[in-house]
Amino acid sequence: MSSDTTRDYDADEECTTTESFADHGLDDGSVLISRTYNRIAADGEPKFEPTPEFFDTLEAAFIWAYIGTIDEPGVPPHVEAAIEDAREFTRREFADDSDADLQTDVIPTFYQQIAGFHCAYRD
To answer: How many structural domains comprise the chain?
Structure first.
């Protein structure tokens, strides 16, 4: 994950993928990456498969990682929108790459996209 990805969403503040969820009390997004992976890996050695079912699992794992990490009830609508858009981007990115590594490629890309969209969508 790179904190080089930035988007100015407010003239006084800069949003990075690493700190995108700071407004939700999480200063380091790598926590969400590792917790998402651990949720998927809980059932054994996970392998990436570019199928709708896999992306359902990835999305659910991220949501549960988010809920378990952030001290607020549920998932705000702007975070849900970021997750949905990131899911579609990641699905297209890895559609023809069944050899992609889940832990080092797919989940970090998914998170970077969520964080980027979150920077754009948050209030």
So the answer is: 1
